[in-house]
Design brief:
183 residues, DNA-binding, mainly alpha, three-stranded antiparallel sheet, homodimer
DNA sequence: GTTCCCATGTAACCCGTTACATGATTTT
DNA sequence: AAAATCATGTAACGGGTTACATGGGAAC
């Protein structure tokens, strides 16, 4: 049995399947505004996965010449690629994502900080969360009109992010209230 | 100016500062049940950071011989180390943590799955979230009694995880309800 | 005429993980 | 006799990041 490929490979495979005929450049931007919120990938990494996927025969690359822009490669999933995607989707996975938060890490050592530093840490966190909320709302608004299955999936993952950010904003308020009367 | 060290280095530094006189072995277990939920580190990595921190002169290692167990190194922060920790805590940071979720990634391609697969994906996610809720509640219960500043910081980071997991559980219910009547 | 957009790539680094090794002592 | 605990480490790998290079056409 071959070594398991990272989920990132399937993320790119699924994206090509979802947006057939896109160039690497386009896929980077699409990835940036679709699954970046729960599976961020850099440009370099995406191009590397493109190489891997064509090497595996899971996607086919076609050269396209353009008049008013540089030539480009466009990608499609092959039958083998669609099968690999289906297999991956059928395999159960551990439901534990990875999460690392610099804010929480610093907050964990809050007793070594001046109260003002803690307050500003929380304020920064709050504004970052508010930005997230706005982003997710914008995504959902944009997909509201569309009623395709792919749009629905996107809308619901955005909802996940929205609910998460909202809950964390409430946490910030809870903590700030506790700081005011407690310490 | 020297290259910035990763947050992991300061995580270990802060932990030694919090639990002085612990061995590497003990620090691994303490890290596992304190900040693992928002900053997981493996045993190998922790030992590597221990080397780095002693090399920097930020922590001092002392050899301790034991009768009923192998000899061990125990660690303390130096004055320089405490200063470095304070500096790091004083530097503002981007409030965006890193998050990667295999569940959401698969869910994003839900239109390529059988409805039963989607249901089982959500069921797995739900039970993982329920386990998280239990873990966070357990941590908070254990720290409820203690009223030190360090315990409070731990309790509040656990609360953050609890609120997050609760919001996501509600999301699962929302989505499941939508699947039943919609599709 | 400089800056932005398209488009693809290289180079280097290192953080983090997994698997494994060792060996004494204590518990089952 | 076997397994778990204490304690520290090595080896190898690869995923992901940041920074940089290139170059033509379009826009301001």
């Amino acid at each position: 049995m071959a070594a398991a490929l990272p989920d990132t490979t399937y993320a790119v495979l699924g994206l090509i399947d979802k947006v057939p005929g896109a160039s690497g450049y386009e896929l980077v931007t699409v990835a940036g505004r679709s699954f970046a919120h729960f599976w961020p990938i850099s440009q370099t990494l995406l191009y590397r996965e493109l190489d891997r996927l064509t090497g595996l025969g899971w996607v086919a690359a076609t050269r396209v010449e353009q008049l008013h822009a540089p030539s480009k490669w466009i990608y499609h999933t092959t039958t083998a690629g669609q099968g690999a995607l289906a297999d991956w989707l059928a395999t159960p996975t551990r439901a534990t994502g990875s999460f690392r938060s610099g804010v929480l890490l610093r907050f964990f050592f809050a007793y070594r900080m001046h109260p003002d530093q803690v307050r500003s840490l929380l304020a920064d966190y709050r504004s970052a969360l508010q930005t997230q909320v706005e982003d997710f709302v914008a995504i959902m608004d944009k997909l509201e009109a569309v009623s395709t299955p792919t749009a629905r999936a996107g809308r619901l993952t955005a909802l996940h992010g929205l609910r998460t950010a909202e809950a964390r904003l409430k946490w910030v308020e809870e903590v700030e209230a506790q700081l005011e009367d407690g310490s």
